Amino acid sequence: MNKDELSREIARLRAEIERHNLLYYSFANPEISDYDYDQMAKRLQDLEAKLPEGKTVASPLNAIGNDLAQGAKTIPHKVRMTSLDNAYSLEELNSFIAKTQIELAQKTIWCAELKIDGFGINLFYDKGNLQYATTRGNGVEGEDVTANFSVLAEIPHSIAYLLPIEIRGEIYIPLKDFLAMNEMRREQEQKPFANPRNAAAGSIKLKNPEEVKSRNLKAIFYALGYYESPLESGGKLVTGQFEVLDFLHQLGFPTSKHLLCNSFAEVEGFCNQMETMRYQLPFDIDGIVVKLNELELQKRLGYTGKSPKWAIAYKFKPEMKDTVLEEVSFQVGRTGAVTPVANLKPVLISGSTVSRATLHNADEIIRLGLHLGDTVRIVKSGEIIPKIMEVDLSKRPPAAKPVKFISSCPVCANPLERDEDGSINYCPNASCPAQVQRRIEHFASREAMDISGLGISLIARLLSEDMITGIPDIYQLDYERIANLDRLGSRSAENLKQAIEQSKTKNFDKVLFALGIRHIGAITARSLASYFGTIDDIAKAEMEDLQNVPDVGGIIAQSLHSFFINPSNLALIAALKAAGLCFAYRNDLSSNVLEGKTFLITGTLPGYGRKEIEALITSHGGKILGSVSKQLQYLVTGENAGSKLDKANKLGTVKIINEAELLTMINA
Hints:
CATH superfamily of the largest domain: DNA ligase/mRNA capping enzyme
Distance between the termini: 53 Å
CATH topology of the largest domain: D-amino Acid Aminotransferase, Chain A, domain 1
CATH architecture of the largest domain: 2-Layer Sandwich
Shape: globular
Helix content: 25-40%
Largest sheet: 5 strands, mixed
Radius of gyration: 26 Å
Strand order of the largest sheet: 2-13-12-3-11
Number of domains: 5
Number of strands: 24
Structural class: alpha+beta
CATH class of the largest domain: Alpha Beta
Number of helices: 24
């Protein structure tokens, strides 16, 4: 790749990873497996290393996943919650352990634990009583789900430990309950959950605690966040992770199977044993977490931007099965991209029956050398559409016909074109019925305008009945006519009307994302909306102005420029303005408790990085200043505070606070 090609591929991967982050964390509705996501992230990491200027703090690789719902009540964690780096082979795991021993210049002991494929939670106790429960959130603050935890029988509401302490774990749904829940949802014509993790994520945030109780949520605990040193259990100091697990068990918290390992051979043995036994467990595990046992050594190693340097997740290899390729169909997306899909002889894998697999693009068909009737090896993680890994050429039928990528759109018959980097075939006809439907589906989706009830089947029906021809028609629907449609009725029509009216209150960043501009993910849409303020200011911005926005490079700027010079797109915006949608950004804050207050950070804080604590302050209405001045009200100090602290003391008007005092201000 030349420099321009690298830039384009980096922009494409960033947007794609950002989209998958949103689907996974915010909506518990992933489209790809963890393995495919990690491979995509690894490719982006490799490309960013080749193009140093492409590796910026805006990269999604530097961000911690965010499961916060917009407008939800949040509570800051006293110590941030981080992500784990992954190893997909025992060789990688061995290298990690060896590297750690070299860095510490001593032999190490490791604690190996089951990696529950659940949903991260944080519990805070003080004076022995549960004060609140939060989700992992964005790592800095979590969504308040205390009311739902009150109905979970296995969670201790009081513990025999009086000092303040954060206790962390995973919420999960037992496999038998998950299968029963999905069977019931199918009977009620509801969309089944993709996998147990997604079911748990959706359940813990339900508004009705009684419904939460019916989901039979369980939890396993494995870590501490904030606690006051030294930590004691049974009159003895807690100095290692193995003892932390014992401490949690003694307090009444469920823990998983774990092993103290004195060598890599012992770690390897535990990993192999549990990979063999994984399908015999009552819950989903997707690997083993390996942690340096001694807490003091953990502290010495510290963290990268998003992960501890003293722990790693060894991810099990996805299950593979052989089956037969029966045919290949082609789907048209909202941007016109044409994606091939393999239709397979049904096969049972990872507890569910699979009959389709993604083929991504024409290059993938060529790479695999696919022929109809081929025996193919598929890989699958959870209940995500699987992927074909390879073809067993020894089983190819005589006279098997090679699979060829189509040359014209399967819906409108328009000749296909290749995109600028040559990896995607697309239909250039913006009026193609398939594109129209996909654009409306995207616009109405949860992560965009969140129009409940306007799903795939109803959109297809409204299009076929000529009740809509494009996005603006959503706001001109004839609800009486909808009520008379078969299997709908007046209640469904009224619910749809309310959801559509509610969508008019969505903030500008949601509307911008809903427009479906190429390369514009949800986070980039928010950056653009908050930077420019209005759609008109974005539309008239020069390329240079657009690239001043965090996350926006040349590829995204060009995509925006192309969108806003297209007359049909301008007509769409005008129609949506007339319908009453929001095209001016409102600064939605977690709270306004810091409104009117100014802050500056100096030194190394114990729980958060500089950018994280600044984001936390601004999300609660505070303002960050660039230097010590008469306008500064609060200086938040950590270790090695330096000259800013001296200047603040000389001024005499600045209040000096630490991280804990800041968090107390926010919690108040």
